[in-house]
């Protein structure tokens, strides 16, 4: 009867081996999705901090324009001659090369 108890205990896989696939999935998820997204966010925030008056930018809506004024939270962007719009900082998608 004691031999039966040892056989039942040996049939159960190790707890570490049960969680290994889950841990592996989480590591792959972090390396392929979360880490690149965090890096992209940091570079975008750095780009927003460096923007100044006169820079050419592309807005998230697809418009291209020139920054005419900088506030704490907003940029004034001239998208056409005499047409100035005020946009939030995060509405700027990228900076055009000079």
UniProtKB/TrEMBL annotation:
GO terms for biological process: protein transport. Keywords: Cell membrane, Membrane, Protein transport, Translocation, Transmembrane, Transmembrane helix, Transport. Signal peptide: none annotated. Its main location: membrane. It is a single-pass membrane protein. It comes from the Bacteria. The gene is yajC. This is Sec translocon accessory complex subunit YajC. It holds the Pfam family YajC. It is found in: Cell membrane.
């Amino acid at each position: 009867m004691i031999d039966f108890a040892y056989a039942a205990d040996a049939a159960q896989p190790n707890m570490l081996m049960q969680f290994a696939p889950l841990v592996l999935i989480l590591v792959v998820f972090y390396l392929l999705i979360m880490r690149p997204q965090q890096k992209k966010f940091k570079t975008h925030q750095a780009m927003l901090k460096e923007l100044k008056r006169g820079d050419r930018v592309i807005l998230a809506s697809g418009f291209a324009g020139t920054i005419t004024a900088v506030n704490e939270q907003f940029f004034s962007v001239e998208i056409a001659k005499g047409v100035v719009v005020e946009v939030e900082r995060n509405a700027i998608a990228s900076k055009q090369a000079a």
